[in-house]
Specification:
The structure holds two protein chains of two kinds. Chain A is of the alpha+beta class. Chain A is built from two helices and three strands, in the order βαβαβ. Helices cover 34% and strands 32% of the residues of chain A. The termini of chain A are close together. Helix content of chain B is 24%, strand content 24%. In chain B, the strands form two sheets. Chain B has a nine-stranded mixed beta sheet, with helices on both faces. Chain B has a two-stranded antiparallel sheet with strand order 5-8. The chains are: A alpha+beta, B alpha/beta.
């Protein structure tokens, strides 16, 4: 079994109003060194594949087909034995 | 105008659409289950507003894979009229039947209010009854209607006259203050190249009776009737 972590983030050119709002909250708390916050999605997928390469390939296919929208989002996949 | 209104789990505006087309316009309506695979009996398919599949992951991301969506794509390819309203617009984009994406409103607020829309393109199947520059007053009701497309896609939409509706002031000026959600170019609705598929964030079905505050939505729905008549001729 493998554990795939999928990080989905908005492309740099896409505005992120949620990230801006979170930054405002951090500033209100006194974290005045914050320059930017980008909000995204984090998914953990446990999958039954014969080896790590297969697990990665499947998780990347999932991200391409459903988990991320290539119009607005990028993704990164990390795979470890579960 | 034989109209099918697609109902996904979580769709909420299907009965409003059915009321507008069936009761007010007096056209035949049937509700289409998201598991159906044949739409051959229909002339117009409406993907109504709501929160299909809870809008989990992204608005419209799961609905796109419902069995009915292959049929909707084939229906559109054959020239059938398809109107995606609000969540329906988001679904059409996720299905790549329309370009771009709808992001969270720039304000991070859910906006439920009447807006003004300038008709930019009166050749689409859903604006035939309008004249270019005409201002429609129709409500919005969404948290994620902030139209985005990359610069190249945006330029191609604008160049091809595929921007159908823009948020504007009551006298038709396209200003930042009239933009309720941060959409690029104040875009409220776009069409495919052929003009038979339109997605729009505002809800024409909620602006079809004076008692509800306005009737400008009728122009959108009646345009479809005339688009069909034009094809038949």
């Amino acid at each position: 079994m493998y554990r795939a972590e999928v990080f989905v983030t908005l492309k740099p050119v896409v505005n992120d109003p949620a990230g801006l709002t979170i930054r405002g909250g951090l500033e209100a708390l006194g974290f005045d060194s914050v320059r930017e916050v980008r909000a995204g999605k984090y998914l953990v997928i446990t999958l039954d594949e014969p080896d790590q390469d297969h697990a990665r390939a499947r998780a990347e296919a999932m991200a391409q087909q459903l988990l991320a929208n290539a119009v607005i989002e990028d993704f990164r996949v990390e795979v470890q034995p579960a | 105008m034989r109209t099918g209104i697609v109902v996904f789990p979580g769709t909420w505006s299907d009965r409003d659409c059915g009321h507008a087309v069936g009761e007010i316009l007096g056209e035949p309506v049937r509700y289409v289950d998201h598991r159906e695979r044949a739409l051959d009996d229909l002339e117009l398919v409406i993907l109504p507003g709501g929160f299909s599949y809870g809008d989990y992951l992204r608005c419209g991301a799961i609905a796109r894979f419902a069995p009915v969506m292959d049929a909707v794509a084939n229906f559109a390819d054959r020239g059938g009229l398809v109107l995606g309203i609000c969540n329906g617009f988001q679904i059409l984009q996720e299905a790549r039947m329309l370009p771009g994406a709808l992001l969270r409103n720039a304000s991070c607020e859910f906006r439920c209010e009447w807006v003004h829309l300038r008709v930019e393109q009166s050749d689409s199947a859903f604006t035939l009854d309008c004249r270019p520059g005409q201002v429609l007053r129709i409500p919005i009701s969404h948290g994620e209607g902030n139209f985005f497309a990359d610069a190249e896609t945006l330029a191609s939409l604008e160049g091809a006259g595929r921007v159908v509706l823009r948020y504007c002031t009551s006298d038709g000026r396209v200003t930042a203050a009239a933009n309720p959600n941060g959409s690029l170019g104040n875009i409220a609705g776009i069409s495919n190249a052929r003009g038979n598929v339109v997605g729009m964030m505002p809800h024409p079905e909620r602006a079809c009776e004076a008692v509800l505050g306005g009737e400008d939505g009728l122009a959108v729905l009646r345009s479809a009737i005339h688009a069909l008549a034009r094809v038949a001729v």
